[in-house]
Amino acid sequence: MDDTEEVERMLINFPARSRYYFVITLDSYFAVCYGAPTISFCLEEHTEIFMKQRKWLDKNHRQDRGADPEHPQKTAYFGYRKVPADKKTQRVLQHFNSIARRYDLMNTLLSFGIHHLWKRTAVKTMALKPGDRVLDVCGGTGDLAILAAETVGESGRVIIYDINRAMIDAGLHKVNNSASKKCIGFIQGNAEELPFPDGYFDYAMVGFGIRNVTRMDQGFKEMCRILKPGGKMMCLEFSRPTAPLFRWLYDIYSFHVMPLLGELIVGSRKAYTHLPESIRTFALPDELTAILKRVGFSQVTARKLTNGIAMLHLAVKA
Fold first, then answer.
1. Is 158:149 a contact under the CB 8 Å cutoff?
2. At 72, which CATH number?
């Protein structure tokens, strides 16, 4: 069985009227994530300080996010909270289960629709070609995948890969209504353990999802592995605005307006307090560039979008 047949074997037809594909990765770790009861975590003393200050973490704390792969961290940030690293995935699953149904609506409201422009810019920067194979890691509701599919066409392949079933389900109607639906597939699994052979894809992309991966460096390492030599990886992620005044206004908006809208529309202030917190614990652009080079990428470029609220990194597999 060649590599293409092996990947197609992982794609299982959805029931009923859908023509698209789905597989659940039920290894022991992932099964525990779905079956375990809700766990209450004790917070470290400094957490309350962070929560009150609403601050961007300093360099030393941010460096925890890009730990040495040979010495994996024992704890991980979930917002400002430090939780056991092996429990973060469960908390991320619970978080996105709570917001999946209104995820796209909230993205559009909170960004005033600008996220659509960011995503179009990101996919255009990748310079895709008809027939390319593309992996959309943490692909969620499929916005990036649909844009990529418009270029790769029916001779190509775009796979949405996400750990959260609720998020994939929330985006199915968009894929069903897209002109390029025949070349889009779905696989559910952990970004730290991609179930694809080495060198299978031409491109990999991750949009607003890598900061939720427990071992971010491992996620990037896996994306590098599954790319062909010379293949490209695109990372679109939130970052720290560059202008101090704009950053101050952004902080006010993030910690007052976002949680309020989350409570009114989604019914969860907590979920939309976690969002700005997770952004403020994430690596800054130069730090992310260093991580990408460390795991095997070269020719790493970074581009600011909307005064640095979002950053677009493009890297090539060496």
1. yes
2. 3.40.50.150
Residues 6 or more apart in contact with residue 238 via CB below 8 angstroms: 208, 211, 279, 282, 309, 310, 311
Q: 249 CB contacts (<8 Å, ≥6 apart)?
A: none
**Max Cα-Cα span within the chain:** 58
In the three-class reduction of DSSP (H, G, I as helix; E, B as strand; rest coil), residue 314 is classed as strand
Beta bridge partners of 270: none
Q: Considering only CA atoms, which of 185, 127, 116, 181 is closest in space to residue 153?
A: 181
Report the C-alpha gap between 26 and 114 in whole angstroms: 36
Mean pLDDT, range 132-158, rounded to an integer: 98
**Termini Cα distance of the chain:** 28
Can you tell me the distance from the alpha carbon of 181 to that of 146, in angstroms, rounded to the nearest whole number?
A: 8
Residue 203, SS3 per DSSP: strand
76 bridge partner residues: 83
Mean residue pLDDT across the chain: 85
How many domains are there within the chain?
A: 1
Mean pLDDT of all residues in 144-171: 97
Nearest alpha carbon to residue 291 among 237, 231, 230, 226: 237
User: Would you call 284 helix, strand, or coil by DSSP?
Assistant: coil
Q: Render pLDDT for 109-122 as a digit per residue (tens, 0 to 9).
A: 999 999 999 999 99
Structure tokens at 56: 């961007």
- Give me the phi and psi of 172, to 5 degrees please: -60, -40
Q: How far apart are CA 297 and CA 231, in angstroms?
A: 10
pTM over the 0.90 mark: no
Query: Which range marks the domain in which residue 194 is found?
Result: 3-35+42-317
Those residues whose C-beta lies under 8 Å from the C-beta of residue 254, and which sit 6 or more positions away, are 54, 275, 276, 279
